[in-house]
Every structure is written in C-alpha cells, then in structure tokens.
C-alpha cells in the first residue's frame, strides 16, 4: 500500500532555509575551501584560540615563587614572493625597471674620485648619505628619460648636397603644417629697425622699433597682447621674469610696462640705456648706458644693487653668461670685460680683436664665447679658465650681431645676410668652416635671438621681423616645472612665488659657481689669526694633556710626568707618520738580475 507524502515534507526546515538564504557568493579572489560541506557556505575564517594554559603567567607582586624569563628568538625575515594582482596573475616585470649605467653617469653630479682626507665620523656619515641621495636622484632622472618623447633633428642634404643652399621656402614645403606656420614675416618698414626678445617659455615675442613702436604678442597663435607707441626712440626691449612685465630702454630713461601696455615704472636712475639683460635666477636687470655705467636693478624690490663704471666709453655691446650670470661687455679697444655686481673692478679682461668689438655671445653651457670685431674676424674662445681662442674665421663683412641656440648653433648677422654654423653636439663648439644655413633678408639685421624650445630664429631688421626655421636649434623637451609654455595664469603666479623664494643673492655671482661649495682656507686661517690676536689666546687650540688623579699612591709626581711623556710621544709619532705619508715615495733602484747578495747592501741608499 503506497503512502501519500504529506504536503511540505520535501521542504527543508526553516533553519536550513535561512542558512541557504544567507549564503554569500564567492569572489574571484577567494579560494574555495575544501573542508566545507557541499552546498554550505565557507564563511569567514575562524580565529584560532590561543592555548592560554601553555603560556607562562606573569608572577604577581606578592608571589614569592621563582621568576623565569622567556627567551625570544629573532624572527626570520621571509623573502617576498612574486607579486600578484587581485586576479591572481603574476607580474612578469617585477621590481624596478633596469637602467643603463652610461645614462646614470650622465646625470651624476658628484665626483667620487675626490676624497676628504681624514674625515670625522659625523662628516663621513653625512657624505655617505649625500652620495646615496645623489645616486638615487641620478637613477630617477635616468629612468624618467623614457618620458622624453621628442628627439632633436637636423637638416641633411641628399648625395652630398650643401645645406647652406637650401632656402626657407624649401624647408616650409617639407615640414608639417604646424611647423610651417612658425615661419612668417612682419612688414614694419615705417617704424624700423627693430630689436626683439622672446620670453623664457618661448611662447611670447616682444619687439620695439627705433621710432617708438612697441608690441608684444603670442607668436604661436598670432594673438596680439599689446601695441603702443611711446613717442620716443626705443633702443632695446626685454621681458622680465614673466611675459607680464616688459622693460623698454627708451632714449632718456628706462620704462617698465605690463602686458596691457600700461606704464608701471619709470626708472630715472637708469638713463640713456643702450642694452638690457635680465638675470632670471637673481631677478636682476642689467643695463648698459652711453655714459659708460653698468647698473644692476633688482626688480623684486625695485632698487639699484650696483652701479659700476666701466671706464671704457659708450657701452653698446653686452651679453650674459647663462651658467654663472656674469655680464660680458665689449669695448672699442678690442677687449671683452667680465663683470659681477659684487666687484667694482672687472673679474677678467680678454683681448679679442685688433679693432673694436661689435658683438658678443655666450653659449648656454657657459663654456664658449663668440666675438666679432671691426677686423672682420669671428672668433670662438674657451671660458673654462684659459680664455684662449679655439678657432677663428675671416668674414667678407663683419658680423654685427651674434646669438647661440640651446643646442649650440651660432647665428651671425652680416648686413642683410644671416649665417648659421652648427657643431657636433650641445657641448661642442660650432665649426666655422662651412655654414649650416644661410638666409637673405629684406633689410639690415639689428637683432638676433633663438626661440627657446622651438627650432625658430627671430631676426629684427629695418624691414620688420622675420621668423626663420632652423631644424635642430632648440631643446625638444622642456621642464614643465621650470618653463612651461602651456601654463595658465594661476600656474604662472605660483611659479613666481616659488622663484622669489629661491632667488639667488647678487653677491654670489662669480666666475666659477663651484667655488661656492668649497671652503676658503686662506680667509679662514686669516680670520682665526685675527681672532687669536684680538682675544690674546687661541680658543680653538687643543688644551694640554692633564692626567687624572688616581688613588692608592698612583698619582705621584714621577707617575704624572711619565704619563704626560707617553702622550707627547704618541702625538709626535702621529705627526711623523702623517708627514711620511704626505711625502712622495722614492722608487727603489732595480737590482741587476743575476747579482749575488753582498754584506755591503745594507749601506746602499
């Protein structure tokens, strides 16, 4: 007899239904447990109960039982296994990316060959920490070189073709549309000749005409920022620390305008200015005048830092060394003088030409200087302490204006012709044998400057402004924290605040910037001597050894004298050992092979 199942007999009980309802889905990073029953949720891992019975209890204060110690063994550090992601996949490139040793050495700035003689323990630890930090910085810089996507290029002719015969029209047809738009001509014959200047970011261009025309524009988008006529002769224009301020050397005084063309300042102490140079890291505006004075104006506080008399007549040739911020002045007697606001006399004088100097330029590395004079000579000098000419070339017409690019190209303006010479690289001097490019203008050249971070050469002449394309002239990659051409107004304001906080004092300008990190031993010894004479004794002198008194009759007079003599002998031995180490070792005479030893060899010196 078949029994009819009762309704609801196959339905699980209420407790099991709640357990099935609370079951959570397993995530893909969770491993399935083998110990759980089929259909049951693994649940959270249970905490293991510690066996407190085996743990030794701390003795109480009133407990007189014997106390015992628990010896703790040092933990063994397990080597980290292969890193895995959330999905469980193993990283095929674990650890930091490998870096080439040659690339790291290119960014290393510490010379480990020079060792400090007998450093103290604290000094040695600081040197080790500084070397480790410098090594880490150089490795990071070498690893970030992968982010520099752009590479410098050059113009190469086909089948031995001379690149100097390639015209600007041919270059414009060969490049892309964006690069071709960078070549343009501004026909401004009414107010010429013109002087021009690019901003530090290379985005803005300012130019001023001899007849009072002053303008500033974003030359990439061709958007005019401001345009005014000062109704006075303009001899030079220069951007200050940003494109928002523009200094104009007018025939009488120095004026400062903003990017809207509004006059902000009129510096009457700088009168009859002929040339302007701005030192960006010192916030100094250097002015050369007809009266023969070189003045330094601190634009951050608005005061004259130094006014130096060059005693060489009218100053119309001036440039700066970007490496050490030293001003180079060219004079009519054929010399070039180097000036610093901390010295009233020139740091150095170089005899460059037999006639007057017409133009001076210094490359961005600060190692080479190019000069041209009335003797039609173009010379390259080494500024690394020797000041000797490296090469010279006689030009059919003397160069009136010179300019270096960021990668070491040299441009010279001779009448209405611009010649450009190239070298082997950034640090190598340009070769003056064969010109790299040549271009003829519609007027005589009155100003030259390469645009930063763009393969463009700006030329100011009597007919207006010309923008030339020079492949391989500029650095292809820029530092966004230092000079970002795409920065906004807010970013520019923040950069100005940081630059003011990092401002370098004018007193630190010198020929060799590395000398600031060294100790002036002569001045230090002189200061110590003057201090000892003023006080009557030397406070830094080592006190004589005084033995400590001992007990039980060991502090007798003979014992004290004996201990003093022992210390004095040890100091004397140390001095003798140091003097022997400093003396050059004498090479022993080589004995002839096959000679028998003699008893008289002990007397041979």
Automatic annotation (TrEMBL):
Annotated keywords: Nucleus, Repeat, WD repeat
Amino acid composition bias (Basic and acidic residues), ranges on this chain: 53-66, 567-578
Region annotation (Disordered) ranges: 1-97, 116-135, 533-605
InterPro entries tied to this protein: BING4_C_dom (IPR012952), WD40/YVTN_repeat-like_dom_sf (IPR015943), WD40_repeat_dom_sf (IPR036322), WD40_rpt (IPR001680), WDR46/Utp7 (IPR040315)
Repeat region (WD), residues: 350-384
Main location: nucleus
Cell location: Nucleus, Nucleolus
BING4 C-terminal domain: residues covered: 435-513
Superkingdom of this protein's organism: Eukaryota
Protein's recorded name: BING4 C-terminal domain-containing protein
